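Just wondering, does anyone understand what follows?

——
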Amino acid sequence: MRRSRIISCGAYLPEGIMTNDDIAKIVKTSDEWIEQRTGIKARHIAAEGQTTSDMATRAARRALEKANLTAQDIDAVFLATTTPDQTFPATAVTVQDNIGMGDRGFAFDIQAVCSGFIYALATADNFIKSGQINRALVIGAERFSSLLDWTDRTTCVLFGDGAGAVIVEADTAATGTKEDRCILSTHLHSEGAQRGQLYVDGGPATTQTVGHVRMNGKEVFRHAVTRMGEVVLETLHANGLQPEDIRWLVPHQANKRIIDATAEKLHLSPERVVITVSQHGNTSAASIPLALTTAVEDGRIRKGDLILMEAMGGGFTWGAALVRW
């Protein structure tokens, strides 16, 4: 059976760090207020002139190095981002050029906001399972600070910048069971009727501007807890598993209260949840690969561990991926 397997990961965070105290100098807020409501203490902010493709390229190179591969070993680049370098071309083609793929394979962007990495991973998984490609670079990268209204304390305290990447390759010796060290399943959803709850108030076809993030925080929180709980249970049911079978939950790092609520629904102890939101903030499509890389590099995630990744973002979009490491 042909399945896809994650063989390495890499991450990049900008050098600039903005603490809650730094934000308190810009808008009326405090470290205590932010941490109590979000769990965030600090976030990384891209330097002036540093683009999404710059960060994505660094993460991609680290993933390639960890896998002992070169760009010529990659057939496709799937880049999840809400903050492309330009309206077009796709930021993925810049990364393709930066890492030295030349005209090998293909590259394109995927836009599902905070769910973007799950959507991109599902895309790579299906391209590989269909036999169209053998190896893909899947990246989540965001310069979300570019979309923030720094006078709006309900949104500017939440987000940060960064990039994470994984390399996914074909495993032609898979047995088709849940014991395979592969991507076992992916599950994607969206509900366009809720698009007004979390959005950017600009765009080429409307205002001809980039715009800023706007959010109905209470509704986003309510839907996030519900939808992420639903997709986690859907994933477990599809694979004949129980919550206790999951070794690690690697959630989208939006808000610690949302993460805690999801873990509580699954009766998962905090020790089995990877949380990086305190130091990264919400890095949108980059948050899951950043958290995944953190847990792999510090030794928490080990060979054979069953990992559940899940996210929800503007759209609304939401999804999950079940992976045996």
In short: The chain is about 30% helix and 25% strand. Residues 217-238 form the longest helix (22 residues).
